[in-house]
Amino acid sequence: MMRGIICQSSRWVVLLAVAVLLSGCIGRSSPKVTYFSLLTAEQLKTEQTIASLPEVNLGIGPITIPASLKRSQIATRQLGNQYEFNEFNRWAGILEKDLSYVLGENLGQLLGVDSIGFFPWRPHFQPTYRVTLDVIRLDGSLDGDAVLSAHWVVADANGKTSLADGKSEYRQPLEDKTYPALIKAESQLVAQLSHEIAVAIAALNK
Questions:
Q1: Residue 78 burial by Cβ neighbours in a 10 Å radius (0-12, 13-18, 19+)
Q2: Quick one: which of 1, 9, 31, 145 has the most CB atoms within 10 Å?
């Protein structure tokens, strides 16, 4: 009889402990997920016009990025070749498309171009120039710099002849050790690359 009472009491103790744990889990809110997109030069308030080419149709893409960046979690570089992907800081969309859009917006502002198409463009769109980008690296460290390394090509309408090209690498210190600062720094790097490509396109029209 005494053994039964002890077993029953133990069972109630266990159930009470489980209930307390569950109530703690339910009451504790999950960390909030923050979503980011790259900023255009206009949003960064660094836009400037270096040419006026309203007659130009500018085709953007294709743009390629490393496989390590083809995921929603934002990548930060750790030691050497190690990456960390943060579950609670993510890209709002597909990074290639975001990068394509921002590059197009930046080039349009810099060159005074209104007609911009994104690969794959519609049948009626015929680009004057095609800008392709092969991103080697776009990442950073929260306690260091953001880095953008990329091959770029400005080609003719058919994409068969390279008219200008380059391999560029830029670094930008972060304002603080946060993800918003990282995204802002990466956006500033894209703005710098956009300016370099815009100067090359402007030179083709002199």
A1: exposed
A2: 145
Question: Largest alpha-carbon pair distance within the chain?
Answer: 102
As given in the structure block, the two tokens for residue 184 are 């802002």
DSSP letter assigned to residue 176? S
Report the alpha-carbon distance of residue 202 to residue 206 in Å, rounded. Answer: 7
The whole-angstrom separation of Cα 88 and Cα 33 is 4
Q: Residue 18, exposed/middle/buried by CB under 10 A (0-12, 13-18, 19+)?
A: exposed
Per-residue pLDDT tens for 120-163? 999 899 999 999 999 999 999 999 999 999 999 999 998 899 99
Q: Are 162 and 140 in contact (CB under 8 A)?
A: no
Q: What is the pLDDT of residues 105-119, one digit of tens each?
A: 999 999 999 999 999
16: which 2 tokens?
């009470």
Whether the bond between 62 and the residue before it is cis, its omega within 30 degrees of 0, is yes
SS3 146: strand
Tell me phi and psi for residue 18, to 5 degrees: -60, -45
Q: How many residues does the chain have?
A: 206
Residue 13: name the closest of 2, 21, 27, 25 by CA.
21
C-alpha span between 93 and 144 (Å, rounded): 25
CA-to-CA distance for 60 and 130, rounded, in angstroms? 6
pTM for the predicted model, two decimal places = 0.85
3-state secondary structure of 170: strand
